[in-house]
Amino acid sequence: MSTSLSGKTALITGSTSGIGLAYAKALAGEGANVVINGFGDKDAIEQERLGLEKLSGAKALYSGHDLTKVDQIETMMKEAADAFGGIDILINNAGMQHVAPVEEFPLDKWDLIIALNLNAAFHTTRLAVPYMKEKKWGRIIQTASAHSLVASPFKSAYVTAKHGLAGFTKTVALEVATFGITANCISPGYVWTPLVENQIPDTMKARGMTREQVMNDVLLAGQPTKQFVTAEEVAATALYLCSDAAAQVTGANLSIDGGWTAQ
Hints:
Layout: E1 9-12, H1 18-28, E2 33-37, H2 42-56, E3 60-63, H3 70-84, E4 89-92, H4 107-135, E5 138-143, H5 156-175, E6 181-188, H6 194-198, H7 200-207, H8 211-219, H9 231-242, E7 253-256
Parallel strand pairs: 1-2, 1-4, 2-3, 4-5, 5-6, 6-7
Helix pairs in contact: 1-2, 1-9, 3-4, 4-5, 7-8
């Protein structure tokens, strides 16, 4: 399987930790320039950026723009284009979660989750596609989650955004199919990341459970393997989608969920 990405540029949103950082490391490992995005400790992010450059032998840039704001997304994409000429690989991974009953769901949280998990992917995609069409090659990958295929209670905004992301990806795949561009979703089950860890207290409150009960009876209840997915497993799937072997894989939603959505 050919996965050399030397000369290609990848932009990964939400990539200063967790799955996003694993994507960046996997792509850098194949020689790609990478643009990472997200929030966090400035010094820690700089160390990761330097590590990516060492890994790739190419360039790594950090963009701290807020993806809930359209003007900042446009600035990020322009800066990446100015630095590298354009984006060959776009991975929309930025996301957030909030757990609450629908009748109590905070309006600001709804708007924020839809903006970051869904709207941002639209804006990055619309700005990346013209360059990909010009090059007649591109890879668009969404971290869509098992919640793009099934629902869970108390996650109305997240499930709505992820279902929307899956539909959006199918539409884009059809539009760009004759340009050498693919668009696909990767839908992990529960991956042990800060996003998952941070929702445990809210779930404890919403369901009246202990931490252990949430981990075993909620998070891993639907995964027959009873194991968390690893960020590296998700990144390996992205690497496959970027390879020549996956040129005819488009409009797909690839589950990595320990059998969750097989039930």
